[in-house]
Specification:
The complex is a heterodimer of chains A (266) and B (503). By secondary structure, chain A is α/β, with parallel strands linked by helices. Chain A is built from five helices and 13 strands. An eight-stranded parallel beta barrel of chain B has the order 11-12-13-14-17-18-20-21, surrounded by six helices. In chain B, helix 11 packs across helix 14. The termini of chain B are far apart. The chains are: A alpha/beta (266), B alpha/beta (503). Bound molecules: iron/sulfur cluster (2 copies).
Chain lengths: 266, 503
C-alpha cells in the first residue's frame, strides 16, 4: 500500500506515515495538531492496520479515542490529555509521561505508562487496565465501576495525589508505593472518599482516608489477586516481582454500597 | 416520637355508590385503600394519600373524592401550611426534604406576563390550514455565510455544513433517565419521538439495549457519573449531550438509591446491582471552559465529528457569560434549564430557591450571543416548565431554537403532578422501576398520547404564527417585536428585550 494512497484526501499528512511491516505503521506526530494526528489514526484504523508506533508525540490529545481496529499503539514522547478516552479493546504503551484524563470513561483495553500520569486517571473506567510505573495525580480512579464481567484495574508503582478512588463503585486500585523509603507515607489525603464498591490495595500509610472506607488486612484471595497484578506490573516494566511482593499491604473497603442512605426525610 | 403531621388529603367514599370491587385497593401503591372483611367494606388510611388521583379516576362507580384536607395548621401569609409542615417533618426526622417535579411557586413564571401579537389590517394574517407553514427546525452550528459555486447551469454548496438534528416541530422530550422512570416510559418517549420526527433525551442513566433501535431519535447524555457511557452508546445516539446542570437542582448532584438499581437498571447504567448510583455535582474532569472544551472534543473524536454535541446547564445568575464560554468551547447546542425545571428527586429547598426563571435566562443568553456575533455558532434549547404551545411560541420569540418538555410529556402519559416521584411508587407507573406498577404504562397507548400532544401543539403553533402573519418558524425566532409584557417592571422588560403592552 502506498502511503499517499493511504491518506487519500489528506496527502500532506501522508508523508508522516511510514510502513514498518505488514499491518505495522509508524507516524511522526511532531508538530501535528491533535485533529490531524487523530485523522491519520482513523484512516489507518479504517484500513485495518493493527499496530501503530507514534514518534515525536507532543501533547496531542485523545490518542486512541474512536478507534475500532487498531489493537496496539506505542507512544514515544508525551501524549496530551484524555489519552484513550472512551477507549475500547486497544493497548496503548507510553514511553514517557502521560497527562490528565488518561483512560477517561474507558470500556476495555490496556494502558501502560512507563513514566508518571496526571490527574483523574481512569475517570469512570468500567473495564480494562491501566498500569503506571511512576506516580499519578489527583483523583485517580474516580468513579471507577465494575459491571457484569468487566472489572477495571489500576496499578500505580509510585504514589498518588488526593482523592484516590473517589466515588469508586467497583474494580481494583493497587498503590504499590515503590518510591516510599522506609517509614514515609503517601501524600494522598481523602483516599476512598465516597467509595461504595471495589477495593484499594496500598503499601504505605496515606495521610488521610475518606469517611466511607475501612482499613483491613489482606486475605488469601486478596493476596492472590495482588500477586497476579504485581507479576504483570513487573513484566511490563521489567522489575523484580519478589521484591515488590515482599512488603506489607493493607486494603481499603467501603463500609456500604449505600454511603448516603440516611440523608433524607421521606 | 409522636408525629404532629396532619394528613394532606381526605378520602371520601360514597358508600351508596361503592360496590366493593376493590379496584382502588389494587391500584393504590401507597396502601391507602383496604378491604375490611369483617364489615365487608372498603376503607382508607388517608394519612398515606399523596393525592395522585389514580383511584378516583379508575373507580368504576366514581365513588371516590380526594380532597385537600381542610383541617390545616393555623396558617397565615408568612407561615403557610407548607412551611409549617416542613418544619414538623424535619423536627421528626432530621433529614433533607425531598420532592419531585418542578418548582411550584408562582413568582417565577414570566410566560403568563407576556402576550403575543396578531396582524390586523396592515399586514395580513395567514391561514395555516390552506397555506404552507414551516415549523421544521434544525439544531446545530450554522455557518456565518454560505458559498455557492456556479457550474454550467448547476449550483453547488461549497460551505461545509456542521451536523444537524432535524426536528419536525421545535419540541423535544427532555432528559429523563431510565431509573427515574420506568422502561415503559422510556420506550413510550422513544416511540413518540420517532413517530413525530423529533428527539427524546436518554438522561444520564444510559440507554437500554432494547431501545437502541430508536437511536436515530435519541440524544444520549453524558454526566458526571458516566452511567452507561461506552463507545456504542455514543455511536447510537443522534447527538450527545454533556449534562453540567439541571434546573431543578443547580449545583448539586443526584443519586439513584441502591434499592432502585435492579438488574435491568444495573445493565443500562453499567453499574453493580444494588449500589447507589452517585452523580456528583461536578464532573471532575471539568473545572473550566477549557476543560469543557476538552470533553466536547473527546466526544467529537469518539464519534468522528458526525453528530452535534450539546451542553446542558441550569439557568443561574451569569448564564449569559457561561453560555458564551460554552459556545466558544465548541458546543453545537446549548440546553438551558430554568428554575422550574423538573426532576425525579431533589431537595425541595434547592428546587424552590436556586436558579433563575428560564424566560430571563433565555433572553439574556440569546442577547449576549447576538452581541458577541456568535449566535449562529450554536442552537439554543430551553427547558423548565413549558406547559403549552403558547409557552413554546414565546420561548422561540425570545430567542430559543427549540424547547424541551418533560413534565408536560409525563402529564400526557398520566402523571397528575403529585410531586412524589422520589418515592419510586408512582401509581401511574411513571416514576417507578417496580415491574408490577410500571405495567400501567402501555407504550403503544402512551406514545400515541405523546404524539397527539405534539401534533396538537404543532397545530396551535401554526395558528399563532399565522395570526402574526409569519409562515416560517425562522421568522419568529428572536422576533421579540411579537411579544409585549404585562405588569412587568422596566428592568424586567429590558432583560426580556420586550416592550410593555400598549407601547
Ligand atoms: S374502586 Fe370505587 S367502587 Fe371499587 S372499592 Fe374502590 S371506591 Fe368502591
Ligand atoms: S410522575 Fe408519578 S409520582 Fe411523579 S408527579 Fe407524576 S404522578 Fe406523581
Amino acid at each position: 500500500m502506498r502511503v499517499s494512497n493511504l491518506c487519500g484526501g489528506v496527502n500532506a499528512l501522508g508523508s508522516r506515515v511510514r510502513r514498518i511491516d505488514e499491518g505495522f505503521f509508524e507516524v511522526d506526530a511532531g508538530g501535528l495538531r491533535y485533529k490531524e494526528l487523530n485523522t491519520i489514526l482513523r484512516i489507518l484504523d479504517r484500513r485495518r492496520i493493527h499496530r501503530v508506533r507514534l514518534i515525536n508525540v507532543e501533547g496531542q490529545r485523545y490518542i486512541g479515542t474512536g478507534l475500532r481496529n487498531i489493537s496496539e499503539i506505542e507512544v514515544h514522547g508525551t501524549p496530551g490529555n484524555d489519552m484513550g478516552a472512551f477507549m475500547k479493546g486497544l493497548k496503548i504503551t507510553v514511553y514517557g509521561n502521560a497527562q490528565d484524563g488518561c483512560g477517561n470513561t474507558m470500556s476495555s483495553g490496556e494502558i501502560i505508562i512507563h513514566g508518571s500520569a496526571g490527574d483523574i486517571l481512569g475517570y469512570a473506567m468500567r473495564g480494562g487496565k491501566i498500569m503506571v510505573k511512576g506516580d499519578i495525580g489527583y483523583r485517580g480512579g474516580i468513579h471507577m465501576k465494575e459491571y457484569h464481567n468487566l472489572k477495571p484495574i489500576i496499578v500505580v508503582g509510585g504514589s498518588a495525589g488526593d482523592f484516590l478512588g473517589e466515588y469508586m463503585a467497583g474494580g481494583i486500585i493497587a498503590l504499590l508505593g515503590l518510591n516510599l523509603d522506609g517509614g514515609s507515607a503517601h501524600e494522598a489525603r481523602y483516599v476512598g472518599t465516597g467509595m461504595h464498591g471495589g477495593v484499594i490495595y496500598i503499601h504505605g500509610e496515606v495521610r488521610h482516608k475518606g469517611g466511607e472506607v475501612v482499613e483491613l488486612d489482606l486475605e488469601r484471595g486478596d493476596r492472590i489477586v495482588l500477586e497476579g497484578l504485581v507479576m504483570e506490573f513487573s513484566r511490563n516494566f521489567d522489575m523484580d516481582p519478589e521484591e515488590i511482593l515482599d512488603r506489607e499491604y493493607y486494603k481499603l473497603l467501603p463500609f456500604s454500597k449505600r454511603p448516603y442512605g440516611q440523608l433524607y426525610a421521606y | 416520637m409522636k408525629s404532629y403531621m396532619l394528613p394532606e388529603f381526605n378520602v371520601y367514599r360514597d358508600l351508596e355508590r361503592c360496590v366493593s370491587c376493590q379496584v382502588c385497593v389494587n391500584q393504590c401503591t401507597y396502601m391507602v385503600h383496604y378491604y375490611d372483611e369483617e364489615e365487608d367494606l372498603v376503607k382508607s388510611r388517608e394519612e398515606n394519600c399523596v393525592g395522585c388521583l389514580r383511584c378516583a379516576m379508575l373507580c368504576p362507580t366514581k365513588a371516590l373524592k380526594i380532597v385537600p384536607n381542610p383541617t390545616s395548621y393555623r396558617e397565615n401569609h408568612h407561615w403557610t401550611r407548607e412551611s409549617i409542615s416542613a418544619i414538623k417533618v424535619q423536627a421528626e426526622s432530621g433529614g433533607v426534604i425531598l420532592t419531585g417535579m418542578g418548582c411550584d411557586k408562582p413568582q417565577y413564571t414570566y410566560w403568563d406576563r407576556i402576550v403575543l401579537n396578531a396582524s390586523q389590517v396592515t399586514n395580513p394574517s395567514i391561514d395555516p390550514l390552506r397555506e404552507p407553514m414551516e415549523i421544521r427546525t434544525f439544531l446545530g452550528k450554522k455557518p456565518k455565510e454560505l458559498s455557492i459555486e456556479a457550474g454550467s447551469g448547476r449550483y453547488s454548496l461549497t460551505t461545509e455544513l456542521s451536523p444537524q438534528l432535524k426536528l419536525e416541530m421545535p419540541i423535544m422530550f427532555t432528559a429523563i433517565s431510565y431509573g427515574a422512570v420506568s422502561f415503559n416510559v422510556h420506550e413510550s418517549l422513544a416511540m413518540a419521538a420517532s413517530e413525530s420526527g423529533t428527539y427524546f433525551n436518554t438522561g444520564e442513566g444510559g440507554l437500554d439495549r432494547r431501545l437502541y433501535r430508536y437511536g436515530d431519535h435519541a440524544i444520549v447524555q453524558v454526566a458526571s457519573g458516566r452511567f452507561g457511557v461506552d463507545p456504542s452508546y455514543l455511536e447510537v445516539g443522534a447527538a450527545v449531550e454533556i449534562k453540567i446542570g439541571q434546573g431543578a437542582k443547580p449545583g448539586i448532584g443526584g443519586h439513584l438509591p441502591g434499592e432502585k438499581v435492579s438488574r435491568e437498571i444495573s445493565r443500562t447504567r453499567m453499574i453493580p446491582k444494588g449500589t447507589d448510583a452517585l452523580s456528583p455535582a461536578p464532573q471532575h474532569d471539568i473545572y473550566s471552559i477549557e476543560d469543557l472544551s476538552q470533553l466536547i472534543y473527546a466526544i467529537k473524536e469518539a464519534t468522528g465529528y458526525a453528530k452535534p454535541v450539546s451542553v446542558k446547564i441550569a439557568a443561574v445568575h451569569n448564564s449569559a457569560a457561561i453560555a458564551s464560554g460554552i459556545v466558544r468551547a465548541g458546543a453545537d447546542i446549548i440546553a438551558l434549564d430554568g428554575i422550574r425545571g423538573s426532576t425525579g428527586a431533589a431537595p425541595k429547598i434547592i428546587r424552590d430557591n436556586v436558579g433563575i426563571p428560564i424566560e430571563l435566562a433565555l433572553a439574556s443568553v440569546d442577547q449576549r450571543l447576538r452581541d458577541e456575533g456568535i449566535r449562529n455558532e450554536a442552537s439554543l434549547v430551553v427547558a423548565g416548565g413549558v406547559r403549552n404551545s403558547a409557552d413554546v411560541v414565546k420561548a422561540i420569540a425570545l430567542g430559543a431554537d427549540a424547547v424541551y418538555i418533560g413534565t408536560a410529556a409525563l402529564i400526557a402519559i398520566g402523571c397528575t403532578v403529585c410531586q412524589k416521584c422520589y418515592m419510586g411508587r408512582c401509581p401511574w407507573g411513571i416514576a417507578t422501576t417496580d415491574p408490577w406498577i410500571s405495567k400501567r404504562v402501555n407504550p403503544l397507548i402512551a406514545s400515541k398520547r405523546l404524539s397527539n400532544l405534539l401534533r396538537a401543539w404543532s397545530l396551535e403553533i401554526k395558528e399563532m404564527m399565522g395570526g402574526m402573519g409569519i409562515n416560517s418558524i425562522e421568522s419568529l425566532r428572536g422576533n421579540r417585536e411579537m411579544l409585549r409584557g404585562v405588569g412587568l417592571t422596566d428592568k424586567e422588560l429590558s432583560i426580556l428585550g420586550v416592550r410593555h403592552a400598549g407601547e
